[in-house]
Design goal:
Elements (H helix, E strand, L loop, with lengths): L6 H4 E3 L3 E5 L8 H7 L8 H9 L6 H9 L1 H10 L6 E5 L21 H13 L1 H22 L4 E16 L7 E19 L4 H67 L5 H35 L27 H4 L4 H22 L4 E12 L10 E9 L7 H67 L5 H36 L9 H11 L1
Antiparallel strand pairs: 1-2, 2-3, 4-5, 5-6, 6-7
Helix pairs in contact: 6-8, 7-8, 8-9, 8-11, 8-13, 9-13, 11-12, 12-13
Length: 532
């Protein structure tokens, strides 16, 4: 379904942009297309009938039914305004890397722990398993809708036993009981001739919905992998924050001991000791909050992996992996084919288009055939001695429906327009996600560089201020201010490194892609049971 139309039909070159355009829409049934091509909209039905008579390729019964609904044909032709589903795209993204874009995007991060977590989530996450179930439903529906193209054959068998009791007409015999047995069997076959393509449109619509469900599954898998990665690195940050806060607590404890020693010698005021004690207690409070955030993230990660919240699912690293080189973003014209949500929106446009064809075909007569073979007897051994066969043709033509079918055509047209607008919005939103992730990561790298410089300068200032304080040439408040600023910078740097990874995850999520996914075990069990 991804290559329904070649790129040359999907894209129209412009000077500075490409215009995204879907192929011509509105499903008009094949026989109606042949009919409408013969009908000038400004001619009378009588002229139109003459035009049909000249179409020797059409069967006579079709000509008769077409004449019955001539006014409907003319109104149908005038019912279909043309919609131009075009959308202007830029020639390229603002930034592009050099690293090849992997289908399993998380492998580019080269984090073995994350690899194992995502593989586990893709097999055990219950939300993704539900997406597999929705795909199974769409598959079954497509098979069911496609089955209408074939004749149906049903076997019927009946057996009955009845008794009657009544007077025989003489006093000697009195009441008399009679019993009757009846056996019957037969075959019945039915087939609808799809003159207007109604059944074909329903089949195609179900096929496009199935394709959309496949893409929805792929989009759900990408979203799940990104959510696992983001939760994991938030957890790594909290592990690192706890380790950093413990180091800062140790430094603050040493400073408190030194300030207390100088206070006992009368070299500093009591307020300096109290300020340092307050800083020490603040560090302990930050550790408590970090531990709380850590437990919550551990619970979230376990649930994403289909495990109970209190389950330990990984080790406790406190350092981030180096950020991999920026991947290739490619051209927007090529990129949109990698987004499963865009492919899903496209498939739903085509499904809605087929629904228009179904609604149009429902306004015209239906021709169906049925045949039946029956046999009945009072005893089983003579059941197959006598047979009765029938062959029938049935024409069902709507005459008066209060405008119901015409309203359904208008509804499906509005649904098609809605899906087109949803498609356009999906493309624009996806482009914004890519551009946002690119600019955010670029600026985040600059921010990390600035934080490293600030931290290096802060270290020098803190050391010199501390030396001046030990020599009695500096007030303790300045030392405390620089100490607080330095420790805050350390925590901000750790958070900034995690946010850089988050923006890279968002970029991979926005670039889309996909990989071959194997059905989960429970889906295989359902498929096996359905065949039995």
């Amino acid at each position: 379904m991804n290559d329904l139309y070649p790129p040359s039909q999907k894209w129209t070159e412009g000077k500075t942009h490409r215009a995204l355009a879907l192929p011509p829409l509105y499903s008009i049934p094949p026989l109606l297309q042949a009919c409408l091509s013969q009908i000038p909209s400004d001619h009378s039905p009588l002229y139109t009938l003459c035009a049909f008579v000249k179409m020797r390729s059409l069967p006579r019964i079709a000509l008769f039914m077409i004449f019955l609904m001539m006014s409907g044909l003319l109104s149908c032709k005038n019912l279909l305004p043309r919609i131009e589903p075009s959308l202007t795209l830029p020639e390229s993204f603002s930034v592009s890397g050099d690293a090849p874009l992997k289908s399993r995007w998380w492998e580019a991060l080269e984090d073995p722990i994350l690899d194992a977590l995502i593989v586990r989530a893709l097999s055990d996450n219950f939300s993704l398993l539900s997406a597999w179930d929705r795909l199974d439903q769409a598959t079954a529906l497509a098979v069911r809708m496609g089955a209408a193209r074939f004749p149906t054959l049903d076997l019927q068998a009946d057996a009955s036993h009845s008794e009657s009791r009544g007077s025989s007409g003489t006093l000697a015999t009195g009441q008399q009981t009679r019993s009757f047995k009846r056996f019957s069997t037969g075959l019945r076959a039915e087939y609808e001739l799809d003159l207007w393509g109604r059944i074909a449109s329903e089949k195609e619509a179900a096929a496009f919905e199935l394709e959309a469900s496949k893409e929805d599954l792929q989009a759900a898998a990408i979203s799940l992998s990104a959510e696992v990665a983001d939760t994991w690195y938030r957890l790594v940050e909290q592990y690192g924050q706890i380790e950093l806060l413990n180091r800062q607590l140790s430094v603050n404890t040493q400073v408190l001991e030194f300030v207390t020693f100088r206070f006992r010698r009368g070299q500093v005021r009591a307020a300096d000791v109290l300020r340092q004690r307050q800083l020490l207690e603040s560090s302990r409070g930050e550790i408590v909050l970090a531990q709380s955030r850590t437990r919550v993230l551990e619970h979230q990660l376990a649930v994403l992996l289909g495990r109970p919240p209190a389950t330990r699912v990984s080790a406790r690293p406190t350092r981030f992996i180096p950020l991999a080189p920026l991947p290739e973003t490619g051209l927007p014209a090529e990129w949109i084919l990698h987004r499963p949500d865009i492919r899903s929106a496209q498939a739903r446009v085509f499904a809605a288009n087929e629904a228009v064809g179904t609604a149009i075909a429902n306004r015209f007569p239906r021709l169906s055939f049925s045949t039946q073979i029956n046999s009945s007897s009072e005893s089983i051994d003579k059941l197959f001695d006598n047979w009765l066969s029938t062959l029938a043709a049935n024409i069902l033509a709507p005459i008066i429906d209060g405008g119901s079918r015409r309203a359904e055509v208008r509804r499906t047209l509005a649904l098609l327009s809605q899906n087109l607008n949803d498609f356009r919005q999906t493309v624009l939103t996806a482009m914004a996600e890519v551009e946002n992730a690119l600019i955010q990561e670029a600026k985040q790298r600059e921010w990390i560089t600035s934080l490293n410089k600030q931290l290096a300068l802060s270290t020098q200032v803190l050391e010199r201020t501390r030396d001046s304080y030990l020599q009695g040439a500096e007030d303790y408040l300045r030392v405390l201010d620089f100490l607080l600023s330095h420790q805050a910078l350390e925590r901000s740097l750790l958070q900034a490194q995690r946010e850089a990874l988050a923006f890279r995850i968002a970029l991979h999520r926005a670039l889309g892609g996909g990989w071959e996914m194997n059905p989960p075990h429970q889906t295989k069990v359902i498929e096996t049971a359905s065949r039995q």
